[in-house]
Design a protein that fits this description.
84 residues; mainly alpha; 67% helix; elongated
Length: 84
Amino acid sequence: MTRRCREWLDRLSLYLDGELSEALCRELERHLAECPDCHVVFNTTRRTIELYRRYGRPAMPEEARARLFRILHLDDLRDLRVDL
């Protein structure tokens, strides 16, 4: 991934939220057309947002939550009420 890719990916949420200027939108769209890696990230992010908006956030089973906290070394926080 190039430095330019990182810069565009940093702006991706602005683009998806319709908060990027028209000129930057066109530039980003050109980049996405030319860069398969960024195109995949864009499509995945867009689809994730669409699914979240359609179905909301599902409850995380306690077993999966415990495993996630263990992997992230957050075992001490498991008893706290953290919405994940």
